[in-house]
Amino acid sequence: MRRLMTGAAAVVTLCMVPACGSAPEPGSTHSPTAPSSTVSRAAIAVTYEGHDQTSDGPSDAHIDLVAVPPDHVRYALKQTGYPQMLFVYDGTRLLVHDPEESQPWSLYEKPEEHPDQFVVSDLFAAPGSAEFAKGCPSAKPLGHKRILGRNAAGYHCAAHFLADGSGTFAFTEWLDQKTNVLLESDQIHATSFDDHPDINAATFSTTAPAGAKVAVYAARQHAGDPPKKAAAFDLNRVTGSSGTGTVSLSDYTDKPVVLAFFSSDLAFGDEDCAGCLDALAALTQLTHGGTNPAVLAVQDGEEGKPGYPLIPKGLHVDVVVNDPASDVQHAYGLDGQVGFAFIGADGTVHQVFNKAPTDQQLKDAVDAIR
């Protein structure tokens, strides 16, 4: 999450960038949960200040949180050296504003499919729940104290590291007993708590400002889901690949087609994407060079130079197009270095993969649309 780490209150547990080092937060795939009997449905507004000493000097953060726990959240973060970020969750969709991104506004139709973003289900997790245990491993109670005139319960959370080196350092946190929201941790503390903030229609709106270009991450299609209509597109062929001009989804009307998304960075290897090149090569073989069914390779990002189109070795198909801002990839709910969308002859999406699938998964998906 670029500047955040998980904890029992994931979104307001600060991780200063230089201090995070080799211990980023573990991934989380759990989805927002129904309100706990210990969680208030009343609106709250909390302001936080964070301070840390890093190898680059002091780093400060200011956070404004407005919420109707547990499923309506507005969260703004301003941290030293970074522009302000905004996260708005309306109970279903998540809107993110990050001025450093090429497309500053992003809308996630199914946020739980993107756990590296805002993990709202941790924000108001009740101690003792599975969600709380994921953010605060081996929690040990520290007792109670008053913070901002509110009753708070403290916990020591053990360090937790996975085989890939990801995880969290040990930390302590104090939670508001009425709402379970964070009041104080090692690097951050609440400076104000409002039980009756002003809430209006715009507070939890996930509609971007008028005129803003928004990267929309659609909900993914999973095996067993009712097929849905494939997102239409028109993309330019990659210079130096076979043919010229544009390619449209309508070119495959009444024909099955596999969209094979790949990052242009994969042309330099897949050290950070285990199995990615193997999956592209396996798809090439399974479809007889992208002919049965047809394979449309969609390059995300830089196109490359004439004669050097940044197409990975092992991907041998006739049609390669460029999706410079990854708009088409996102329209299928995908954001990985490789991704696959299997579209039947009826024009509906049967299944997608946001990472390299196994050979058997590829074979089954191909057979399902033939």
Strand-residue fraction? Answer: 25-35%
Spatial order of strands in the largest sheet: 13-1-2-3-4-5-6-14
The domain tally reads 2
Form type: elongated
Structural class: mainly beta
β-strand number:
22
Could you describe the largest sheet, including whether it forms a barrel? 8 strands, mixed
Oligomer: single chain
Structure description:
With 370 residues, the protein is mainly beta. It folds into two domains: 10-194, Clam (outer membrane lipoprotein receptor (LolB), chain A), CATH 2.50.20; 220-369, Glutaredoxin, CATH 3.40.30. Helices cover 10% and strands 34% of the residues. The protein is built from five helices and 22 strands. An eight-stranded mixed sheet has the order 13-1-2-3-4-5-6-14. An eight-stranded mixed sheet has the order 15-22-21-18-19-20-16-17. Helix 3 packs parallel to helix 5 (359-369). The radius of gyration is 23 Å and the shape is elongated. 39% of the residues are buried. Residues 1-40 have low confidence and may be disordered.
